[in-house]
Amino acid sequence: MPRILKYIMLWLALVTSTIALGQAEPESDFAQDILITGHTDHVSAIAWSPDGRTLASASSDGDVRLWDVENRSWIASLEGHSEDVTGVTWSPDSRRLASVSNDETIRIWDFESRRQIRQLPFLAGRWGSIAWSPDGKALAVAEIGWLELWDTESFEQAGGTDAVGVNCTLDCLLWSSDSRTIALADQQAITLWDIEKWQQLTKFQSSAFYIVNSLAWSPDGQTVASVSDLTQLWDLGSRRQTDSFQIEDSHQVLSLGWVAGDRILVAEFYDRELLLWDFRRKEVVAKLDGYSSEVDVVAWSPNRRAIASSDNENIRLWFFDAATSGEQP
Q1: Cα of 3 vs its chain's centroid, Å
Q2: More confident residue, 212 or 104
Q3: Which of 75, 221, 237, 308 has CA atoms 20 to 30 A from the CA of 58?
């Protein structure tokens, strides 16, 4: 047998063995990677419009920018805040936006005219997280040690409490799909609040070493996921932890999202890459890299077919095939 043929056969055997042992890098079905630039400082929040057509980004440069997803183009900048904008959220009909800033204001914007239509005081003052209720009737804003609610018709404050310990400005404030419950990242715990009765329903105590960085509801609304140095799943019915695991060897996970099918969580790490994780099989499905700095904001599109993420002042869009979502056939 010619020597070169022997080398080829040996190489094929080694490759086959590596794949059989599961050592091959996970493959990705992501089709595109679009980089959007325009902010001049750190991007602190990203929000998809409910119709999936527009992306809003908030930044430490004091602007809220709007992006046309289909054309990958800038639409407008919503200017008015004088300090870091720490949160942005859409109304369910995609006609209005709300932003919160370290300038101690909450601002309501009309999408069509690109103009501010209301300004509200942010009583807690700084590093707020903001979320519009799914029924469109209320706006929740949280900061360390404070949660407040605003009626979006009268724009009057509907309630507030200092009985919370919110300690992050990413996805640490989430509404349930029926708009009756709010989940909060509360230091090393997750608290659920009944908004109608304005009382705490339950408190899940995390066993993670670090504070909870981010939360995500499962698509069916029955489970809350929390991330820190551990990723943990909490069942709302039994009010118990159902799973706990560490994704690879990461010391900290900054944020996460949940894909349809109740199978895959997406989390970003300090090491400049984004991972898709199958928590049933406890394995990485895809690795997305190419970031210039740590990835600290992620947002799934409403149809769960795209991811918007940021590293420093850049926004990166990933589009992927439905097969990656892990949906059951």
Answers
A1: 55
A2: 104
A3: 221
pLDDT of residue 125 exceeding 90, the answer is no
pLDDT at 4: 44
- Residue the block writes with tokens 């118990």: 240
What phi, psi does 245 have (nearest 5°)?
-160, 160
pLDDT for 117: 96
Domain ranges across the chain: 28-325
Q: How far is CA 274 from CA 13, 39, 40, 164, 216, in A?
A: 31, 21, 23, 30, 16
Token pair recorded at residue 123: 């009583």
Residue 88: which pLDDT band, with cuts at 50, 70 and 90?
A: very high
For residue 12, pLDDT beyond 60: no
The residue with tokens 């890299």 is 289
Query: Residue 55, Cβ neighbours under 10 Å: how many?
Result: 23
Higher model confidence: residue 100 or residue 267?
Answer: 100
Each as own residue / partner, the long-range contacts of residues 192-198 (CB below 8 Å, 24 or more positions apart, any chain) are 192/224, 192/236, 193/147, 193/164, 195/138, 195/140, 195/149, 195/159, 198/159, 198/161
